[in-house]
Automatic annotation (TrEMBL):
Catalyzes the hydrolytic deamination of guanine, producing xanthine and ammonia. GO terms for cellular component: cytosol. Belongs to the metallo-dependent hydrolases superfamily. ATZ/TRZ family. It comes from Lentinula aciculospora. One of its GO terms (molecular function) is guanine deaminase activity. Gene3D superfamilies: Metal-dependent hydrolases, Urease, subunit C, domain 1. It catalyses: guanine + H2O + H(+) = xanthine + NH4(+). One of its GO terms (biological process) is guanine catabolic process. This is Guanine deaminase.
């Protein structure tokens, strides 16, 4: 039976298409059905033609959301790597590199979440922060605790965000107060967590193959897992090819060295995960700052994706990932806020740092900006179109959810943002100076495409939560400044 259209959005659309291009089209009409999927999109529908177009589509009585001047609609952001229980540590401990930072700040904070009262108190505001920043799909690491991860999953589900949530597996090289007692308990807790997440209702899609919350198998990183644990995780993921996998890889030189010591039989870091069947097309590999050439080939061959976490890589002095090179090699790339290695849950901040990281790579290669022979992306600053792609469609590919999300197209879920960069928007009242909203382009006599491009640029480089007036997941309004 046909699902009825229940809402139609009218206004400017910004939509990623390829790594180097995006649509920027005024006067689009986007129809969304009762299950939160996009039915159709028609371009260039002036105000005066809306009713006629709706009649042609057989729609007599439908809710129209008309965007105002200075607003545009775009796909929601996809954060491919972050740690929900580290949000209380935002901005803390950046004088240390990874392994010391974990020991001194991160493990002590995560251990607090054993207390379910603490988890119930903290997680709602944590998840709301990610939603307010426009993240419609978020890949969360939880803690090692089964019950508090269930709390996190329940809260994410009830707030309506799409998410992948993982219970950490970690049974060695962790402090005694924050370590799993055995590989077998790690596995049984993981199985119970997966069953719990699978038992949550699918959400507005009403379709079990398009749920809101997915479980993701989460060996914290090779250092914190025994061979026995990795081997049991191999059996677990082998039994269900749909299960997502997330882990960290080659983030910091000392971490890489220690990993090699622990796995002397493996050729390299990526080889550790590969030898346990953990590299596949729904594997998300966070950081990947220090991959060797053969590791890049292996990641590409297995169709695994990389979550680029530039803010965290700067803060913990992990290094600068050669993302342009990975893109030229055809590796799937998304962006990760990696809170609290990253100091912000915002994907806008992550996009800015991805831009700066690519600029650092370009300047190291070519300090005087001389004309050069370079790859399409290798050693170059990433352009705006690429930043947009990585934060949306690229993220969807990394999560192996690109058939459903990442761009606004008929048949996909309506996971979208209404962005407001006008200075008259009621959404910005009382919020102080917001640089993204402070410049009028009216006097510049620009084409509509150019105006939209400037609006997007300003949003990406100067915007924040105040410019996000609506956040929709699967057609449902779940956040933004217009949300009560
Ligand atoms: N950035 C980061 N890297 C890790 N490697 C293992 N655990 C972590 C973590 O919590 N954050
Ligand atoms: Zn991380």
């Amino acid at each position: 039976m046909l699902t009825p259209t229940v809402a139609v959005y009218h206004g400017s659309l910004i939509n990623p298409t390829t790594l180097t291009s995006y649509e920027a089209i005024p006067n689009c009409l986007i129809a969304v059905n009762a299950h939160g999927n996009i039915d159709w999109i028609v371009h260039d529908v002036k105000d005066s033609s809306i009713q006629e177009t709706l009649l042609q589509k057989g729609l007599l009585d439908v809710n129209i959301v008309a965007l105002q001047e200075g607003q545009f609609i775009m796909p929601g952001f996809i954060d491919t790597h972050t740690h929900a229980p580290q949000v209380p540590n935002l901005g803390t401990g950046y004088q240390y590199e990874l392994l010391e930072w974990l020991e001194k700040f991160t493990f002590p904070m995560e251990a607090n979440f054993q207390d379910l009262d603490f988890a119930n108190q903290m997680y709602p505001s944590i998840v709301k922060k990610f939603i307010a920043s426009g993240t419609t799909t978020c890949c969360y690491y939880g803690t090692l605790h089964l019950e508090s991860n269930k709390v996190l999953a329940g809260i994410v589900h009830s707030l309506g965000q799409r998410a992948l949530i993982g219970k950490c597996n970690m049974d060695r090289n962790c402090p005694s107060y924050y370590i799993e007692p055995s590989s077998s308990s790690s596995i049984s807790d993981t199985q119970e967590f997966i069953s719990f997440v699978h038992s949550l209702p699918p959400g507005p899609s009403n379709n079990p193959s398009n749920p809101l919350v997915y479980p993701v198998v989460t060996p914290r990183f090779a250092i914190s897992c025994t061979n026995q644990l990795l081997s049991s995780l191999q059996n677990l993921v082998h039994s269900d090819p749909r299960l997502h996998i997330q882990t960290h890889i080659a983030e910091n030189p000392k971490e890489v060295e220690f990993t090699k010591e622990l796995y002397p039989d493996c050729e390299h870091y990526a080889g550790v995960y590969d030898s346990y069947g953990l590299l596949r097309k729904n594997t998300i590999l966070a950081h990947a700052v220090w991959l060797g050439e053969r590791e890049i080939d292996l990641v590409k061959e297995r169709e695994a994706g990389i979550s680029h976490c530039p803010t965290s890589n700067f803060n913990l002095r992990s290094g600068v990932a050669p993302i342009g090179k990975y893109l030229d090699r055809g590796v799937k790339i998304g962006l990760g806020s990696d809170v609290s290695g990253g100091f912000s849950p915002s994907m806008l901040v992550t996009m800015r740092n991805a831009s700066i990281a690519s600029t650092v790579v370009a300047l190291q290669y070519n300090p005087t900006n001389a004309p050069i022979e370079a790859g399409r992306f290798t050693n170059r600053q990433l352009p705006l179109a690429t930043l947009l792609y990585l934060a949306t469609k690229g993220g969807a590919e990394v999560c192996a959810l690109d058939k459903q999300i990442g761009s606004l197209e008929p048949g996909k879920s309506f996971d979208a943002l209404i962005v407001d960069v006008s200075n008259s928007g009621s959404t910005l009242k009382g919020s102080g100076i917001n640089p993204a909203a402070s410049i009028s382009t009216a006097a510049l006599n620009l084409s509509s495409r150019d105006i939209l491009e400037r609006m997007l640029e300003r949003f990406v480089f100067c915007g924040d939560d105040r410019n996000i007036s609506a956040v929709y997941v699967q057609g449902k309004l779940i956040g933004g400044t217009s949300y009560a």
